[in-house]
From TrEMBL:
The gene is rgy. The active site is at Y973. Residues 643-809 form the Toprim domain. Its EC number is 5.6.2.-. GO terms for biological process: DNA replication; DNA topological change. This is Reverse gyrase. This enzyme is the only unique feature of hyperthermophilic bacteria/archaea known and seems to be essential for adaptation to life at high temperatures. It may play a role in stabilization of DNA at high temperatures. One of its GO terms (cellular component) is cytoplasm.
Length: 1260
C-alpha cells in the first residue's frame, strides 16, 4: 500500500469483549475496544500484540475482570483446560500433542459431538482413548464401540496403559463373544447393573444386546469406526438414545428430515400454499426439537471415520440432533506402487502369482473379485498350495492373521468385499508388504436390477443417445424429472423400484416411477440390439460397463474402488512415524474392466496410474519393501498433520473444494456449514485437516444510518474513516440492510432478522481450533476486501492469517494456493474502499435529488450508470432518425440479402420487382483463398457480448451461469480483462486436440500475452460440452450445482472459443458475389461474401459450422440466383441498430468506465430503476421516458460529476490505488471537496448524533 499507511476503519459489533464498535487498528493487534480496555490500562499495546496468543489472552483477560461475558475469558478458560489435557497426554505418551489432535481435543473439551474424518496414522484413536480416560477421571461414564472382536483386546490394553500412566483407577468392562459362558454372563451382569467406568464392545453387540444397554445413559460414546456403525443404520438411533435422547426426540427428527425433503421438492414448484405450509411445519418441528434438547442433559458422541459409507436418511439424525454429518476421505495417504497384468488363462494366473510370491516372499494378501466368489477363492488356495506356496483362506477370527504374522503362511486369500476379513481391521505394517487382486474389485448384477437406480438409467441413456434422437429426448425428459426430486425422494423411488412396490407411490413420485419403468423396458431392448451377441461383448458407460454374459443376458459391471483402496491400504501403513512402501498388482482378463476401474478410482486416488508388470523389477521392489520397513529407502515421511481454516465466499465453492478430497464431514452452526476434510499433498508430503467455511459474500458494508458521518464515513482530522456494520437480511420482506440497529428500515421487523454476525461467530470459533487460517476469497478487489474484513474479525482469536489465491477451482489449484500463500494486499483493499465510498457519496445524494425532483423513491443514480444511460439514449435517437424499411430477400437453399429503403413505397416497389423477376443477377464473382486467424480466448466483456448475440442471454444471467461454472470447477475465474493462457491451459488444449478429437496436427499453442494477475476465461478440463454432460451423469465429475442446459450452452461457447485459440490458422476458400436487380430504370446492387470450405484445417471448423454451398457453382454458370419469392418480406427497421446488452458491455470496456465485476450489475441497475427495458425478441436495450428525463436532469445539473470523462478518470484513479501508486485518502479528499462545492454533501466533519463509542474508535 502506498506510503505504508494503515487502513483505518471502525467495525460495529466486532469487539470480542463487549460486541460493540472497534477500530481496525485494535482488531489488528488482537485487543478489545477502547471502552473495554483503554490504552492507559495496557502498556505497550503494540508489543503485547506480538505475544503468543495464549499469553496475550491471559494478559488481556486479567485486565477485563469487570466483564465476565468477555470472549477473552472464554478463550482463557479453553486454553487452560487444553493445557491441562495436553499435560496428561504428554505424561502418558512421552510426546507432545500434534496440531490435528489439539484441534480435536479443543472441540472435545468444549463438549461438542462430531465426526473425526482423517486418514490412518494421524492419531485419531490415540486422542480419543486419552479423552475417554480424561473423562473417566472426572467420573463420567464412557462407552467405546469397535468394529471387530480382534480390536477389543487391543483397545482394552491401550486404555488400561493410558489410565495407569494418568493415575486413573477405572473399572473397564469388555464383552467378548468368544469368552466362556461364565465370563460372558459376569460381564452382562456388570453391564446391566452399570458397574463400570468404561464399557468396550463391538457394534454387533450394540445391535444384539440393546435390550440391556438401553437402560443406561452414557456421558461419552466413542465410535472407533463409523462404517461399522453405519452398516446397520438402526444402530444410529440406539447410540442417540444412549447419550440421552429419547425415542420421541428421534421420531421428531425423522419427521423433520422428511418435512425438509418435501419442502426441497415443492420449492421448485409453483405450489406456494404447500411450500408455506411445509416451511411452517419444518419451523414447528425445529422448535420442538430445540425445546426437547434444552430439557435434557445430552452426552457426547465422537465418531472416527475414514470412508464413512452411508445410505438412507438415518445418518441425517446426527445432523438434526447433534449438528454434524459423517464424511469420508478420498485423498488417502498412500505409498503404493500400483501395477497390472492382463492374462488369458487361469494357468498363466497361477504361474504369475507364484512368480510374485517367490520374489516378494511372505506377507501377501490375495483378493478375489466378488463376482468370482468364495468358491474361486477356495480353488485358488488349493492351486497355490499345489505349487508349494503356503496359503490359507481368510476367515473370521484372528487365527489366520496370527499365522501370517508368525510366518506360518506366506499369503492369505479372501474375497474383495468392502467389509471382508482382510480388507479392514488388519494392521501389520512389518508383515504385510503386497496385495494381489484377482480381477478388479467390482459388483456385477443383472441389467434390469441395475437400471432400477435412476442415476444408472440416465447413465445408460446418455451413452446410447448420440445417434438416436428419441433416446436423447427420453434422456432429457427423465433427467428433468429426476432433478426435481430431492435426495430422500430419490432414495424412496429406488427402493420402491427394487422391491416392485411402485404402485404404492402416489402423485409426482408415482408418475416418475411409471416413466422409469417404461424407459427401463425401452433401454433394455435398445441395449440388447446394439451389444453384440458373443459372450464378453461390452458397452462402455464411462465408469461402468454393460456386458453380455455366458447365458446371453446383459449384466451391469460396477467397479468398486473403495474396496481396492481399503484392501491395498493394508500394504502401506505407518510404522515408526513413517509410511511403509506397498506393492499392489491387479490381474485382469478384461482390458475394458481395467479401463473403467482406472477411470472410477481417479475420483478417489489422485493420478492413479498403474504400471504394466513387465516394466517392474520385482527383485528391486522386494528390496525396497524390506528397507522401507526399516525406515530406509522407500518409506515416506509425511509431515505431522496440521489443522487449517480455509475461507471462501460461496457455499457451492466450499462444497466443490471439499469434494476434491473426499466426502466431507459437516458441522452445522445455525445456517452456517463447516466442511471438514483431510488434504494430503503428495508433492510436499504435508497433511492438513481443512475446515472450509463460506462467508456467503461480503460480511460488512458501510452503515446506512443517517447519524454516522457522511453516508457512513466519518471525517476526523482531515482523515476519512469508514464505519462498517454487519449486513442484515429481513426474513419478513427479504430486503438487506446495514444498520447499527437490529430493525428492518423497510418493514419495521425486529425479530426475524438474519445477521452476517452468525457467520463471524463461526469463523471465530473455527479460528480458535485452527493452527493457520487461509483466506481464499475471490482474486479481485471485492474478494480482497472480504479477506481483509475476515482478517479483522478473527485476528483477536488467531493471528496466523494468510491469503490464498487461486483462479480456478481445481484440486491442483487449491494445493498450489496453499503452497504459495501471500499477505492481504491492502492496496486492493484501499481501492475497494474508495470505490464503495465513491458509489455512496455520488449515488446517495444524487438519488435523493431524484426522489425530490420526480417523487419516485425507487429512482437511483450512479457514477457509471449515468454515462451508460447516456449512450443508450443517444443510440436510440440515432435509431429513430434513421428509421425506414428493410426488404429481406431469401435466396433458395442459400442465404438472404437485405436492402434498406427510407420510403415504404420504394420498399414495396423493390419487393414487387423481385417477386416478378424471381431471381437476382450475378454481375460478377470472385473465388479466392484467405488465411483466417483464431480469436483469443474470452474476456468477460467478450463472453457477455457473444452469449447475448448467440443465445440471447442477458448480462446478469450470463454472469450467474459463469459464477456457477467457476464455483463448480469447470472454468477459470470469469471476471477478467486478460486473454493470457497459462501452461496448464495450453496442456488442456493439447490433450483435447490429440486425445479428444484425434487432431494433434492443428494444435498451435499460444499464451496470448504476458502473464498478469488474471488469466482468460477457459475450461479447466479437456472436456467438450457433450463429454461434460456424460462425465456428470456417469459420476466421473461431481458438481454441486444443478448443471442445466443453459450452463452447458455457455460452457460450450467458452470451450470452443478456447480450443480455437490454441489451434492453427485456417485457410478458407471464399466467394465474393456482386448481385443486382433492375427495375423502374434503376439498378439495386447487393454484395455478399461467404466461405465455401476450409482448405487447410485449423480453428475455423471448431468454432463455426461451415455449410458447403453445393448449388452455387450451377447458379454462377447460369448467371442468376433464384429467389424464394414466397418469403420476400418488408419490415420496419433502421440503418442504425439499437444497442444490445452485449454491445453496451463492449462499449464500457472500450471507453474504460466499467470493470469485469460491474458490467452486468450496471445494466441490471438501469433495468431495475426503470430507465431501460430489454426487448424480448432481439434483446435490444431501449430507454424509457423516465430514463430519458432522469438523464437530462443529471447531465444538466451535475455534468461534471456524471460525465463519461469524470467516470473514466475515477476508474483510472482507482486502478492507481490498486497498484499502490496513489493514496485513497487523498483521492477521497478531492472527491469530498468537489461534492461539497456542488452542494451534494455538507461541510460537516461529524454528525452530532454519532454514537460516542464509534467516535472514540474513529479517533484512535
Amino acid at each position: 500500500m502506498v506510503l505504508g499507511l494503515m487502513i483505518k476503519a471502525v467495525f460495529q459489533s466486532l469487539c470480542p469483549s463487549c460486541a460493540g464498535p472497534i477500530s481496525s487498528y485494535r482488531l489488528s493487534l488482537g485487543v478489545p475496544c477502547n471502552s473495554c480496555l483503554p490504552s492507559s490500562k495496557l502498556d505497550n499495546m503494540e508489543d503485547i500484540s506480538k505475544y503468543p496468543l495464549e499469553k496475550k489472552i491471559r494478559l488481556i483477560s486479567k485486565s477485563l475482570s469487570d466483564n465476565p461475558q468477555s470472549a477473552y475469558h472464554l478463550m482463557r478458560d479453553t486454553f487452560e483446560e487444553l493445557e491441562s489435557f495436553e499435560k496428561l497426554f504428554r505424561e502418558s505418551t512421552g510426546k507432545n500433542i500434534w496440531s490435528l489432535q489439539k484441534t480435536w481435543a479443543h472441540r472435545l473439551l468444549l463438549g461438542e459431538s462430531f465426526a473425526i474424518t482423517a486418514p490412518t496414522g494421524v492419531g485419531k484413536t490415540t486422542l480419543l482413548l486419552h479423552y475417554a480416560a480424561y473423562q473417566l477421571k472426572k467420573g463420567e461414564k464412557v462407552y467405546i464401540l469397535v468394529p471387530t472382536e480382534s480390536l477389543l483386546n487391543q483397545t482394552e490394553e491401550k486404555l488400561k496403559e493410558i489410565c495407569y500412566k494418568m493415575g486413573i483407577d477405572a473399572e473397564i468392562v469388555v464383552y467378548q463373544s468368544r469368552a466362556s459362558k461364565k465370563k460372558r454372563e459376569e460381564v452382562l451382569k456388570k453391564i446391566e447393573e452399570g458397574k463400570f467406568g468404561v464399557l468396550i464392545t463391538t457394534t454387533s453387540f450394540l445391535s444384539r444386546r440393546y435390550d440391556i444397554l438401553k437402560k443406561l445413559k452414557f456421558d461419552l460414546i466413542v465410535v472407533d469406526d463409523a462404517d461399522s456403525l453405519l452398516k446397520n443404520s438402526v444402530n444410529i438411533e440406539k447410540v442417540l438414545v444412549l447419550i440421552g435422547f429419547d425415542e420421541d426426540d428421534v421420531k421428531i427428527a425423522e419427521r423433520l428430515i422428511k418435512c425438509r425433503n418435501e419442502l426441497f421438492f415443492y420449492l421448485g414448484t409453483n405450489n406456494k400454499e404447500k411450500t408455506e405450509n411445509l416451511k411452517k411445519g419444518c419451523e414447528e418441528l425445529e422448535v420442538s426439537l430445540e425445546e426437547a434438547k434444552a430439557k435434557k442433559k445430552i452426552g457426547q458422541l465422537a465418531v472416527a471415520s475414514a470412508t464413512g459409507r452411508q445410505a438412507g436418511s438415518k445418518p441425517k439424525l446426527f445432523k438434526e440432533l447433534l449438528g454434524f454429518e459423517i464424511g469420508g476421505i478420498h485423498d488417502y495417504m498412500r505409498n503404493i506402487i500400483d501395477s497390472f497384468y492382463l492374462y488369458k488363462e487361469d494357468k498363466e494366473l497361477i504361474e504369475k502369482i507364484k512368480e510374485i510370491v517367490n520374489n516378494l516372499g511372505s506377507g501377501g494378501l490375495i483378493f478375489v473379485s466378488k463376482d468370482l466368489g468364495v468358491n474361486r477363492a477356495k480353488e485358488l488356495v488349493k492351486e497355490l498350495e499345489d505349487e508349494g506356496i503356503k496359503t490359507s483362506l481368510a476367515t473370521a477370527g484372528k487365527s489366520v492373521i496370527k499365522k501370517l504374522a508368525r510366518g506360518e503362511v506366506q499369503v492369505l486369500v479372501g474375497v474383495s468385499s468392502y467389509y471382508g476379513v482382510i480388507v479392514r481391521g488388519i494392521d501389520l505394517p512389518e508383515v504385510i508388504k503386497y496385495a494381489i487382486f484377482v480381477g478388479v474389485p467390482k459388483n456385477k448384477m443383472p441389467l434390469n436390477s441395475a437400471l432400477f437406480s435412476p442415476r444408472r438409467l440416465l447413465q445408460a441413456l446418455i451413452y446410447i443417445s448420440d445417434k438416436d434422437e428419441n433416446i436423447k429426448a427420453r434422456f432429457e425428459d427423465l433427467q428433468s424429472k429426476i432433478n426435481k426430486l430431492n435426495p430422500g425422494e430419490q432414495f424412496a423411488l429406488r427402493i420402491a423400484l427394487q422391491k416392485g412396490t411402485t404402485k404404492q407411490l402416489s402423485g409426482w413420485l408415482g408418475e416418475v416411477a411409471d416413466v422409469i419403468l417404461k424407459t427401463i423396458s425401452e433401454v433394455t431392448i435398445k441395449l440388447d440390439s446394439i451389444i453384440p451377441r458373443e459372450k464378453g461383448a461390452v458397452l462402455n458407460l464411462g465408469t461402468s460397463l454393460i456386458e453380455r454374459g455366458e447365458d446371453g443376458s446383459l449384466y451391469y459391471i460396477n467397479p468398486d474402488p473403495l474396496t481396492y483402496i481399503q484392501a491395498s491400504g493394508r500394504t502401506s501403513r505407518f510404522l515408526n512415524d513413517k509410511m511403509t512402501l506397498g506393492f499392489c498388482l491387479i490381474f485382469e482378463k478384461s482390458k475394458e474392466y481395467l479401463e473403467v476401474f482406472k477411470k472410477k478410482i481417479g475420483n478417489y486416488v489422485y493420478s492413479f496410474d498403474p504400471k504394466e508388470l513387465s516394466s517392474i523389477n520385482l527383485k528391486e521392489i522386494s528390496e525396497r519393501l524390506i528397507l522401507s520397513r526399516m525406515g530406509k529407502d522407500g518409506s515416506k515421511s509425511f509431515k505431522p498433520a496440521k489443522s487449517i481454516m480455509f475461507v471462501v465466499e460461496s457455499p457451492h465453492k466450499a462444497k466443490t473444494i471439499a469434494g476434491f478430497f473426499g466426502r466431507p464431514a459437516k458441522r452445522r452452526f445455525g445456517s452456517v456449514v463447516v466442511y471438514e476434510i483431510p488434504i494430503v499433498d503428495q508433492e510436499t508430503l504435508e497433511t492438513y485437516l481443512a475446515m472450509i467455511v463460506a462467508t456467503k459474500g461480503h460480511l460488512f458494508d458501510l452503515v446506512s444510518d443517517n447519524n454516522i458521518g457522511t453516508y457512513g464515513v466519518i471525517k476526523v482530522n482531515e482523515e476519512f474513516i469508514p464505519v462498517y456494520a454487519p449486513i442484515s437480511k429481513c426474513l419478513s420482506c427479504g430486503r438487506t440492510f446495514v444498520s447499527l440497529h437490529n430493525k428492518c428500515p423497510y418493514c419495521g421487523e425486529s425479530f426475524k432478522i438474519k445477521s452476517s454476525m452468525e457467520t463471524v461467530h463461526v469463523l471465530r470459533k473455527i479460528a480458535m481450533e485452527s493452527e493457520e487460517i487461509y483466506i481464499a476469497t475471490d482474486p479481485d478487489v471485492e474478494g480482497e476486501k472480504i479477506a481483509w474484513d475476515v482478517e479483522m474479525a478473527i485476528k483477536p482469536y488467531n493471528s496466523k492469517i494468510i491469503r490464498a489465491e487461486f483462479h480456478e477451482v481445481t484440486r491442483e489449484a487449491i494445493l498450489e494456493a496453499i503452497r504459495n500463500p501471500r499477505k492481504i494486499d491492502e492496496s486492493q483493499v484501499s481501492s475497494q474502499i474508495l470505490r464503495r465510498v465513491t458509489d455512496r457519496w455520488i449515488g446517495f445524494p444524487l438519488s435523493s435529488r431524484l426522489w425530490s425532483e420526480f417523487q419516485k423513491p425507487w429512482l437511483g443514480a450512479g457514477r457509471v450508470q449515468t454515462p451508460t444511460l447516456g449512450w443508450i439514449i443517444s443510440r436510440h435517437e440515432e435509431w429513430k432518425n434513421a428509421r425506414g424499411y428493410w426488404v429481406r430477400i431469401p435466396l433458395i437453399n442459400l442465404f438472404a440479402v437485405k436492402l434498406f429503403k427510407k420510403d415504404k413505397k420504394e420498399a414495396e416497389d423493390l419487393k414487387n420487382a423481385i417477386i416478378k423477376s424471381g431471381s437476382l443477377k450475378i454481375d460478377s464473382y470472385e473465388i479466392y483463398e484467405q488465411q483466417l486467424l483464431p480469436p483469443p480466448p474470452y474476456t468477460t466483456d467478450e463472453l457477455l457480448h457473444d452469449a447475448n448475440m448467440v443465445y440471447g442471454y442477458g448480462a446478469q444471467f450470463t454472469m450467474k451461469l459463469s459464477q456457477d461454472l467457476f464455483e463448480a470447477g469447470l472454468i477459470t475465474y470469469h471476471r477478467t480483462d486478460s486473454t493470457h493462457v497459462s501452461n496448464k491451459g495450453i496442456q488442456i488444449a493439447s490433450e483435447y486436440l490429440s486425445k479428444g478429437i484425434g487432431k494433434p496436427e492443428i494444435f498451435y499453442p499460444r499464451s496470448w500475452g504476458s502473464e498478469g494477475t488474471h488469466e482468460a476465461i477457459r475450461p479447466t478440463k479437456a472436456l467438450s460440452a457433450s463429454d461434460l454432460k456424460k462425465s456428470i451423469v456417469d459420476g466421473t465429475l461431481k458438481t454441486y450445482i444443478n448443471v442445466t442446459e443453459a450452463h452447458i450452452k455457455l460452457y460450450d461457447l467458452i470451450f470452443r472459443r478456447f480450443i480455437a485459440s490454441q489451434s492453427r490458422p485456417s485457410v478458407v476458400e471464399k466467394l465474393k458475389l456482386n448481385l443486382s436487380i433492375s427495375y423502374n430504370r434503376e439498378k439495386e446492387v447487393f454484395e455478399k461474401e461467404l466461405i465455401l470450405r476450409e482448405k487447410e484445417t485449423g480453428f475455423y471448423g471448431l468454432l463455426y459450422n461451415i455449410n458447403e454451398q453445393t448449388q452455387i457453382a450451377d447458379y454462377i454458370k447460369e448467371g442468376r440466383i433464384p429467389v424464394d419469392v414466397s418469403k420476400v418480406e418488408i419490415y420496419r427497421g433502421s440503418l442504425i441498430p439499437l444497442y444490445t446488452q452485449g454491445e453496451i458491455v463492449k462499449l464500457m470496456k472500450e471507453k474504460k468506465i466499467g470493470r469485469p465485476s460491474t458490467y452486468a450489475k450496471i445494466l441490471d441497475s438501469l433495468r431495475r430503476h426503470g430507465y431501460v427495458v430489454i426487448s424480448k425478441k432481439r434483446n435490444f436495450v431501449i430507454p424509457t421516458n423516465t430514463g430519458i428525463k432522469v438523464y437530462q436532469y443529471l447531465s444538466s445539473n451535475y455534468s461534471s460529476l456524471v460525465s463519461e470523462e469524470t467516470t473514466r478518470k475515477l476508474e483510472e484513479d482507482m486502478d492507481a490505488i490498486e497498484e499502490g501508486k496513489e493514496s485513497y485518502l487523498a483521492l477521497l479528499a478531492k472527491l469530498y471537496d468537489a461534492l461539497t462545492r456542488l452542494g451534494l454533501i455538507s461541510e460537516v466533519e461529524l454528525a452530532a448524533e454519532t454514537p460516542v463509542k464509534i467516535m472514540d474508535e474513529a479517533l484512535i
